[in-house]
Design a protein that fits this description.
By secondary structure, this protein is α/β, with parallel strands linked by helices. About 40% of the residues lie in helices and about 20% in strands. The chain has two domains: about 140 residues, Response regulator (Rossmann fold); about 40 residues, no CATH class. α1 packs across α5 and α2 packs parallel to α3. The longest helix is centred in the middle third of the chain and has 36 residues. The radius of gyration is 33 Å and the shape is elongated. About 5% of the residues have low confidence.
Amino acid sequence: MKHREVVVVVDAEGWLRRSLEPGLEDDGLEVARAATAIGALSACAAQDPLCVVVDLELSDHDGLWLAAALRDGNGPTSSVPIVLLAERPDATLCAQAIAAGVDVVLDRRGAIAELRTYVRALVAMSRRVRAEASRRAAKADARARSEAPERPASGRSGTQRKVTARSPGHAVREEVLPSARPDPRAEPTEDSPTRRHVWGK
């Protein structure tokens, strides 16, 4: 089953999702909307998005707070690309946004086509990063398997004793001793040097 590729859009009024959704769905992406910063955290934890687009003005916390919260820790959202939309963003806001973990700051009055272009570029970057992470994990796993010590072949360990015959006051005892047989799982034969018969009381 194909892995779902999601872009989370966070805005209080829904206009951002309505503007982005048609073009992104044409690219094979699913758009999930959250109306609050807290809701966005839950959506991102559940959806593992390739990109997050957030409006600065939200009803509970602003977009800067959300960006910092997503970057906090080592979870899957700590590296997700973030686009922040703001009204006439100045140098101060841009600096604050970068410090909070935002990747791109755009003027919300700008063309929606420009926003889609940035989102597509960031989604492509996320795909490359995830593909590289998967390759590295596969190589590390293969290396660990190749360097792991081999387990000893299963077989008889120690001396196993079996009484095969009895006579008054005596018993013949057959001992099977461990040895370096070509196949440890092979049953010793009567002529095998690892099998001997011991007479005793």
